[in-house]
Specification:
alpha/beta; 7 strands; Rossmann fold; 10 helices; seven-stranded parallel beta sheet
Length: 255
């Protein structure tokens, strides 16, 4: 058996970076992709320090050719793919009545279609290794509001896409699940707060009170989501497939 290999998209920051570093404890090699070369190299260094070999691809998965380069390059280097964790993709948080067609299309291009395209291209390798796939969604899918309609709609589409992949995965021996995180404090969220609050006549401190208003104790940490990702692609979780796992501190109260 060759080296076990995990592929993580969106690995330059936030949940993607935390997941890549966490998976370095369980896999021999972690393949990293994101658009930010400098930040990606920081993740690669942390992965190496955690004990795994790294391979980086700094490009945009909205481009179909990038998917081909990523998968073929991984197979040329390591000969297999055991886990694929689709994390890349930020969706604009723009009001439903203000969001343009171009913004809608851009939001779907990476988080939905990039993940779909990459999972399909990697599928044969995942079949061969009896591997696992995780797609990341978000709690907005379960509680859509006009202020972030695209986030909710695209995240809901990802849940459906993961279910469809999991149905095929039962036949092909590929485990597929999705993760539904709530409010996680990443650098992207901090930047959003800094822009969003003043535009609405609010202070950043007021926005930081979201956990209290949502009925949760605090914001989540990227490392907490990373731990869940690691479990979902582990051998201990092999009977868990077709599931949408919500981790949001209790924000969504519905059954």
């Amino acid at each position: 058996m060759g080296k076990t290999v995990a592929v993580v998209t969106g690995a330059s920051q936030g949940i993607g970076r935390a997941t890549a570093i966490r998976l370095a404890r369980d896999f021999d090699a972690v393949v990293l992709t994101a658009r930010q070369e400098g930040e990606l190299q920081k993740t690669a260094a942390a992965v190496e320090s955690a004990g795994a070999e790294s391979l980086t691809y700094a490009f945009d998965l909205r481009e179909p050719r990038s998917v081909e380069i990523l998968v073929q390059g991984t197979l040329d280097r390591f000969g297999r793919i055991d886990a694929l964790v689709n994390i890349a993709g930020a969706v604009p948080q723009v009001d439903l009545f203000e969001m343009t067609d171009a913004q809608w299309e851009d939001g779907m291009a990476l988080k939905l279609h990039g993940a779909r395209r990459l999972t399909i291209r990697a599928w044969d390798a995942l079949k061969a290794s009896k591997g696992a796939v995780v797609l990341i969604s978000g709690s907005a899918a379960l509680d859509p509001k006009p202020g972030f309609a695209a986030v909710a709609a695209i995240n809901a589409a990802i849940l459906a896409l993961a279910k469809a992949f999991s149905e095929q995965g039962i036949k092909d021996g590929v485990q597929v699940n999705s993760v539904v995180p709530g409010a996680v404090m990443t650098s992207r969220r901090r930047s959003f707060m800094d822009r969003w609050a003043p535009a609405r006549g609010m202070s950043v401190e007021e926005v930081k009170q979201f956990p209290e208003k949502a009925g949760i104790a605090r914001y989540g940490e990227p490392e907490e989501i990373a731990g869940l990702m690691a479990y979902l692609v582990s051998r201990e979780a092999r009977w868990l497939t077709g599931a949408s796992i919500r981790m949001d501190g209790g924000e969504i109260k519905g059954v």
